[in-house]
From TrEMBL:
<feature type="binding site">
    <location>
        <position position="104"/>
    </location>
    <ligand>
        <name>carbamoyl phosphate</name>
    </ligand>
</feature>
<dbReference type="InterPro" id="IPR036901">
    <property type="entry name" value="Asp/Orn_carbamoylTrfase_sf"/>
</dbReference>
<dbReference type="InterPro" id="IPR002082">
    <property type="entry name" value="Asp_carbamoyltransf"/>
</dbReference>
<feature type="binding site">
    <location>
        <position position="165"/>
    </location>
    <ligand>
        <name>L-aspartate</name>
    </ligand>
</feature>
<keyword id="KW-0665">Pyrimidine biosynthesis</keyword>
<dbReference type="GO" id="GO:0006520">
    <property type="term" value="P:amino acid metabolic process"/>
</dbReference>
<dbReference type="GO" id="GO:0016597">
    <property type="term" value="F:amino acid binding"/>
</dbReference>
<feature type="binding site">
    <location>
        <position position="82"/>
    </location>
    <ligand>
        <name>L-aspartate</name>
    </ligand>
</feature>
<comment type="pathway">
    <text>Pyrimidine metabolism; UMP biosynthesis via de novo pathway; (S)-dihydroorotate from bicarbonate: step 2/3.</text>
</comment>
<dbReference type="GO" id="GO:0005829">
    <property type="term" value="C:cytosol"/>
</dbReference>
<dbReference type="InterPro" id="IPR006131">
    <property type="entry name" value="Asp_carbamoyltransf_Asp/Orn-bd"/>
</dbReference>
<dbReference type="GO" id="GO:0006207">
    <property type="term" value="P:'de novo' pyrimidine nucleobase biosynthetic process"/>
</dbReference>
<dbReference type="GO" id="GO:0044205">
    <property type="term" value="P:'de novo' UMP biosynthetic process"/>
</dbReference>
<comment type="function">
    <text>Catalyzes the condensation of carbamoyl phosphate and aspartate to form carbamoyl aspartate and inorganic phosphate, the committed step in the de novo pyrimidine nucleotide biosynthesis pathway.</text>
</comment>
<feature type="binding site">
    <location>
        <position position="135"/>
    </location>
    <ligand>
        <name>carbamoyl phosphate</name>
    </ligand>
</feature>
<dbReference type="GO" id="GO:0004070">
    <property type="term" value="F:aspartate carbamoyltransferase activity"/>
</dbReference>
<feature type="binding site">
    <location>
        <position position="55"/>
    </location>
    <ligand>
        <name>carbamoyl phosphate</name>
    </ligand>
</feature>
Length: 316
């Protein structure tokens, strides 16, 4: 594909191909090979209208390790702060003959719109509450490197589902790879219409985390999601204390899970609210693969850039 806007843009073969390419990037990741020449002469712009630590830096490093020229722009410091529209901003950058625009934006659907306005490949680095496809790919890569083929594995996704683009992309990619998925949230943070989506795509929903962790279908991994208070203009219900009691991955909850599956894994896309959705103890436990997720982001984003930009003449 030319763009990566939604995880649904990738069929199983394409996801597998990206994950296999990511595996082959290991030598670069370990710095045994310093740089690949693959994207020499290509220009990649990271245009971030919303803050980021992991996604922006890993796309920049991934591009540099593949010899692309990479440039970072953010809303603050660009002409967006003078009132320039998204369309004018991206068409301005596009006029500089760039090969890829990696966009993060607080509006769902922004990347889809941008793809209609520019010639460059567009990669969605997170758009509002819609999707974050490279996060889902790096999560799948991290899981596969720990527990192998995801066919039939049980992944539980817990948290503020209403505001989570990570949840939406992860459900799609995990289902594409044959995993079984259960999503858990308090009723106030369960997205409207999830019933018909879960029925169509074959994943389970629950309001009761302990019931899911203690049920017959023992989880292979639990992915905790951030409570996104910046997207809650109407206040946060339940209260932080009630949230932690009902939905936080506390040490006793993690111990209960590990008693049933000693190899169960703890994931979080970051940034974490320690003490709210995950305790510091759980985040730093041996079960936690939070920093592996970050490391995987480099290999996976190199692989995504390769598949979108390298073209046959570079691959052959
Ligand atoms: N997981 C994630 O997208 O993190 P950043 O917001 O730091 O990029």
């Amino acid at each position: 594909p030319k763009h990566l806007i939604s995880s649904a843009d990738l069929d199983r073969g394409e996801v597998e191909a990206i994950l296999e390419t990511a595996s082959s990037m290991h030598d670069v990741q370990r710095r045994e090979v310093k740089k690949l020449p693959t994207l020499r002469g290509r220009t990649i712009i990271n245009f971030f209208f919303e803050d980021s630590t992991r996604t922006r830096s890993s796309f920049e490093i991934a591009g540099k390790w593949m010899s692309a020229d990479t440039i970072n722009l953010s809303a603050k410091g660009s002409s967006t702060s003078k009132g320039e529209s998204l369309r004018d901003s991206v068409q301005t950058i596009n006029a500089m003959a760039v090969d890829a625009l990696i966009i993060r934006h607080n509006q769902s659907g922004a990347c889809h719109q941008v793809a209609g306005w520019v010639d460059a490949s567009v990669i969605n680095a997170g758009d509002g509450t819609h999707e974050h496809p490279t996060q889902a790919l790096l999560d799948a890569y991290t899981l596969r490197s720990r527990i192998g083929d995801l066919d039939g594995k049980h992944v539980v996704i817990v948290g503020d589902l209403t505001h989570s683009r990570v949840f939406r992309s992860n459900v799609i990619t995990l289902k594409t790879l044959g995993a079984r998925v259960t999503v858990v949230a308090p009723p106030t943070l369960m997205p409207a219409g999830i019933g018909s989506w879960s029925a169509a795509d074959g994943f389970a929903t629950s309001w009761d985390l302990d019931e899911v962790l203690e049920g017959d279908d023992v989880p292979d991994a639990v992915m905790m999601l951030r409570v996104q208070r910046e997207r809650m203009s109407g206040g946060f219900f339940p209260t932080p204390r009630e949230y932690t009691v009902g939905y936080g991955l506390t040490r006793p909850r993690l111990n209960a899970l590990l008693a049933r599956n000693p190899r169960a894994l703890v994931m979080h896309p970051g940034p974490m609210n320690r003490g709210l959705e995950i305790s510091a103890d759980a985040a730093e436990s041996d079960a936690s693969i939070v920093l592996d997720q970050v490391s995987s982001g480099l290999a996976v984003r190199m692989a995504v850039l390769y598949h979108l930009l390298a073209g046959e003449e570079v691959a052959s």
